[in-house]
Amino acid sequence: MLRLVRWLSRRSLRLLHAIGAPLGWLTWAVSPTYRQRFAANAAQAGVAWAEARPAIAEAGRLVLELPFLWLRPSDVPIGPRLAWQGEALLEAALAEGRGVVLLTPHMGCFEVTAQAIAQRYCSAEKPITVLYRPARKAWLRELEEESRARPGLATAPASLAGVRQMIRALRRGEAVGLLPDQVPPDGMGVWAPFFGREAYTMTLAARLIQQTGAVALLTWGERLPHGAGYTVHFLPFDEVLPPGAEAQAECAAIVNRAMERLIRQRPQQYLWGYHRYKQPRDGSPPAAAND
């Protein structure tokens, strides 16, 4: 498997995306569970089939572009394949020195966003720290760790130690990034609406902002057609998070609404097959979540 991944990493992005599109459709064809979840999640969000359908091919492109991004030599920039939109928001936030929390949904190429920011705005002394959940398979976990060891890019595991690492980074005035629509481990989330249905939602995103006084921004990496590259977008996080432990569910709902706004901008690139409404193992959701 590693040999195949390394071979793919040397192919052009245009070819990888061309192969990835039918791979996405093949996955759709052979997995009834995936088809049902994809359709149900898109319908829950009120997204028409014509808008959601392209996301099937985009999911395959996401998988095939990873070798290119992961195994690119650390001294080789993404370069001309990158465009930027709204980057003045990030530059202003970094200039304030309060730290920046970058929130990204499972949309577009979320792997390229951190690499692009690290390449343009960060350094080994002042990196961007990204939260990640280590892969279960040993070979993939090793590959992830190797590929993310890049200048200006640090990683924090989804654990208490990783949370502390991110808080320290923010207090130094650095940037951190995470996917707040990722289902958190048991006990690290609350139930909050996501596209009108209760979803177990991490509290970490809001806590990082509140505990450190960091600036919050929304960002995502748009995948451009025909392997042309990516556009990294930045948008303001407009809502105010209420203070207090009793407001965790309300804060989670605010973060979810921000993710919804991003996703509605480009539903063709959201991972509708992601198991967003998964229940934690330690119990069932509140009665309202089952209505």
Run of helices and strands: HHHHHEHEHEHEHEEEHEEH
The SS-based structural class is alpha/beta
Oligomer: single chain
Content of β-strand: 15-25%
**How many strands in all?**
9
Task: Tell me the radius of gyration.
Answer: 18 Å
N-end to C-end Cα span = 44 Å
User: In what order do the strands lie side by side in the largest sheet?
Assistant: 1-9-8-2-5-3-4
Low-confidence stretches: none
Looking at the structure, what is the overall shape? globular
Number of helices: 11
Major sheet details: 7 strands, mixed
Task: Return the average pLDDT rounded to an integer.
Answer: 91
User: Considering DSSP H and I runs of 4 or more, what fraction of the residues is helical?
Assistant: 40-55%
How would you summarize what this structure contains?
The chain is of the alpha/beta class and 291 residues long. It has helices spanning 2-9, 13-30, 32-44, 49-52, 54-70, 87-96, 110-121, 138-147, 160-171, 204-212, 248-265, and strands at 82-85, 100-103, 128-132, 153-157, 175-178, 189-194, 197-202, 215-223, 230-236.
